[in-house]
Amino acid sequence: MKKVIFLVLFFISVGGFCQVKFNFLVVEKFQKELNTEFASKEQSPLTDEDRVVFEKLDFFPINKKYFVIAKFTRTDSEMPFEMKTTKERRPIYVKYGELAFRIDEKPFKLNLYKNIELSKKEEYKDYLFLPFSDNTNGNESYIGGRYIDMKVPKGDTVAIDFNLAYNPYCAYNYKYSCPIVPLENDLKIEILAGVKKFHN
After folding, report:
1. Rounded to an integer, what distance in angstroms lies between the CA atom of residue 96 and that of residue 80?
2. What are phi and psi of 66, to 5 degrees?
3. Among 170, 191, 137, which residue's Cα sits nearest to residue 7?
4. Cα 175 to Cα 151: distance, rounded to the nearest angstrom
5. Are 119 and 125 in contact (CB under 8 A)?
6. Long-range CB contacts (< 8 A, 24+ apart) of 148-153?
7. Could you list the pLDDT tens digit for every one of the 200 residues in the chain?
């Protein structure tokens, strides 16, 4: 749990929650600080074997195309559910809303989720979880999909910067338990942004 909390705080700190327009420097800072975390003996999710030879993560080129403004729809009366993970752990989430957006003039939709237990903590009460899969999975990117951290929208639009997409910890180390991307959040497009896969 300590690792999960650190990761949440890290992504809050790099400013991903506060973007209202595309900012190349925000993405550069995200990449730099993520590499610093992964190189750290105290913070890295990598196995000891991988960490001692670690130089940097592989990222897609930063691309403004994958910064989109989405229409946010709050979904009320949703029932909490157990989200499947890569192990037996079943954290309780609830669907918080839907994000509708376009890439290459094609419409897409993703569901936003809230972790019930995490949201009980004051510092995470506005934290939302955006897991997604796309057509790069298993090729350029991690086969299990990627995540973006979000914050409760203050209006009916929200920015999604796929350049800030990151891999779950289980992409680096099998000891972690990671939420599995729900089928409804599979995008039928290549998202050529964010962190690439770690191992072939």
Report:
1. 10
2. -95, 20
3. 170
4. 28
5. yes
6. 148/16, 149/8, 149/11, 149/12, 149/16, 149/17, 150/17, 150/112, 151/17, 151/126, 151/127, 152/96, 152/126, 152/128, 153/72, 153/97
7. 444 444 444 444 444 444 579 999 999 999 999 999 999 999 999 999 999 999 999 999 999 999 999 999 999 899 999 999 999 999 999 999 999 999 999 999 999 999 999 999 999 999 999 999 999 999 999 999 999 999 999 999 999 999 999 999 999 999 999 999 999 999 999 999 999 999 76
pTM: 0.89
Structure token digits, residue 186: 């599979």
Judge residue 188's burial from the number of C-beta atoms within 10 Å of its C-beta, 0-12 exposed, 13-18 middle, 19 or more buried: exposed
Contact status, residue 66 vs residue 78, Cβ threshold 8 Å? no
